[in-house]
Amino acid sequence: MYSLIALALSLFSLLSAVSALPSRTSPRHSGRSSSQFVTVSGTDFSVDGKDFNFVGTNAYWLPFLNSDDDIRNILANMAKFGVTVVRIWAFNDVATVPDAGSWLLLIKDGNTTINTGPNGIQRLDTLIALAKQYNIYLYFTLTNNWFPFVNDSPSLFPRNFLCTDYGGMDLYVQEFGVTKTHDEFYTNMTIRGEFNKYVQFLVSRYANEPGIIAWELANDARCESSLPSSDQCNTNTVTKWHAETAKFIRSIDPNHLITSGTHGFFCPTCPKLFPPSPAPGSSRKRTDGGLMSRVLRMIALERRVMSRASGANGMKVRGLWTAPSEAKRQSSDIGSAFNGAFGVDSEDILNAPDIDFGTFQLFPDQTNYGITGTEVQPPSSDFDNTLNETISWISAQTDSMHSIGKPVVLSAFGLVTQDNLLQFVPVNDTCPVVKPQQDQKRQNSGANAGVNQQQVTSAYNAWLQQGFQGGLGGVVQYQWSSQNLSAANGTLVQGSVANGTLGVSPNDGYGILGADEAQVHQALSNASQSNP
Ligand SMILES: *[C@@H]1O[C@H](CO)[C@@H](O)[C@H](O)[C@H]1NC(C)=O
Ligand SMILES: *[C@@H]1O[C@H](CO)[C@@H](O)[C@H](O)[C@H]1NC(C)=O
Ligand SMILES: *[C@@H]1O[C@H](CO)[C@@H](O)[C@H](O)[C@H]1NC(C)=O
Ligand SMILES: *[C@@H]1O[C@H](CO)[C@@H](O)[C@H](O)[C@H]1NC(C)=O
Ligand SMILES: *[C@@H]1O[C@H](CO)[C@@H](O)[C@H](O)[C@H]1NC(C)=O
Ligand SMILES: *[C@@H]1O[C@H](CO)[C@@H](O)[C@H](O)[C@H]1NC(C)=O
Ligand SMILES: *[C@@H]1O[C@H](CO)[C@@H](O)[C@H](O)[C@H]1NC(C)=O
Ligand SMILES: CC(=O)N[C@H]1CO[C@H](CO)[C@@H](O)[C@@H]1O
Q1: Most confident of 25-39, 239-253, 333-347, 427-441
Q2: Ligand 6: which of 489, 494, 499, 501 to mutate, most ligand atoms within 8 Å of CB?
Q3: What is the pLDDT of residue 260?
Q4: pLDDT attached to residue 532
Q5: Spelled out in words, what is the top-level CATH class assigned to the domain 4-277+290-308+339-482+508-530?
Q6: C-alpha angle 145/150/155, rounded to 5°?
Q7: Residue 494 — left, alpha, or beta (φ > 0 → left; ψ -120 to 50 → alpha)?
Q8: Nearest CA to ligand 1 atom 1
Q9: Among 6, 21, 172, 323, which one has the highest count of C-beta atoms within 10 angstroms of its own C-beta?
Q10: Whole-angstrom Cα distance, residue 300 to residue 384?
């Protein structure tokens, strides 16, 4: 309990200091600017002189489809339901040139080569041109923490089907690393040089393109991935990489916003590279925005829930990516989302000068958001507790946003439904975790797994509502689905029915085809109408 009090106290002092910061001014932070680029103003986005809060969706695969008509139809459908931002992968790294499909960067023989051809960077040109026709902004992610295929893991799916099958950090480390630890990506200057070459190419190509809302440095960066981390990796390692890479991008592109892309993990007790320092002589009122009392309430609530939930019945869906090692924990009494266990301190990253807004993610099937070290049951068996815990996670993020004074976006959220159970692939894996035989056994025993349709709808509505009420700049669902797509063997939309259904977009457990589709579309549409 001592450490929880220490946590609460350090949250309090952090917030007191932050609330005294002077407000920033710079071209990207100039009040309600009339820039055609999206800018920030306090904790809001603005464009063309108007506030811009967005409902978005994820479709990492969108530029890499086989037909431009398919891309056009999907964008039209997104626009119909109020989606104004789509988050995509602006990277697609390979170790050998594939026979079919698209790719953007070859990482091979101690060198990297950008594919400038029609199945390369031109896919992004096409997507940008099409998105404009539907007034949809593109949110470009530059690399991925996750690449389980680095361990030669076979997959049932074609390349580019899973979001973790686009190369990323571990592919660079595999090619250039000395110790082959994941964090060499953040610290080895040769690797950073190779990554920055790609970044330089991409960012300068689109520096004057207003259809891009932001550069996101990496999806879900952390110390560990499919490759292990070294003992040296900690929150400072990850923060430093974000701060320096953001500064590098800023030097090439003064127009676009830059964000981190992390899961949003907190570590109030971790040492800071960017400590919030009070302005001398400032007389701004000290306030903790209610976070300290909220933390204490969350702790009390969770203790109650834990004592009740111990006998809960149900199968664990969660492919939880557990905290890497004791060494990185600041305190064993605090949950891994709050104690620096993953090497991420999202508040320190958000305070870096060239990071314009923050991000967080929400995947209760894969991550425990409890503030104490104990784990509540996954959504399937204890939906109400999970919902409460996730609402608290969103509140903690909006509190942090208001105290730091930059916008924050929920950049990806999703729940695994019963219908999607057999499709669910966690980020550290290459194949579904629940096998059909196991599922049959589960059904026979009457145990729950995955949420039902009504639960998905109520959770998504609750998250959208909580997010916008708390003042988030944007809320982005994961992930969009589509069918009747042009298929081709060897591409992410298969030409044979062997694996997956003909002409259907990727489903990693979070796809929304079938009964969920209309509900999720309606939830996004409702949110876009009440938060224009
Ligand atoms: C590395 O790749 C670049 C770009 O493809 C090429 O110009 C260069 O000659 C290559 N360097 C080596 C040593 O192969
Ligand atoms: C970084 O990687 C390069 C290329 O593999 C290697 O030569 C160099 O020794 C590494 N630097 C450090 C500090 O490990
Ligand atoms: C993914 O993480 C979970 C939890 O740490 C672990 O049980 C599982 O074996 C991991 N999967 C792979 C393929 O490493
Ligand atoms: C969830 O939160 C609500 C409101 O704070 C509370 O009334 C309810 O008891 C909580 N549910 C559980 C299962 O803890
Ligand atoms: C599938 O796509 C084709 C060609 O775009 C179109 O003619 C057809 O109506 C579509 N079918 C369905 C069920 O959407
Ligand atoms: C894909 O491959 C399968 C099996 O080899 C074949 O039956 C099918 O016709 C191919 N489809 C296309 C679109 O090439
Ligand atoms: C959307 O809003 C309508 C009207 O307010 C409401 O009846 C409906 O339940 C909402 N649907 C969803 C999925 O949120
Ligand atoms: C789900 C599914 O049909 N998986 C198949 C994918 O393809 C491989 C190789 O052909 C099969 O072994 C899987 O059963």
Answers
A1: 239-253
A2: 489
A3: 98
A4: 56
A5: alpha beta
A6: 105
A7: beta
A8: 111
A9: 172
A10: 16
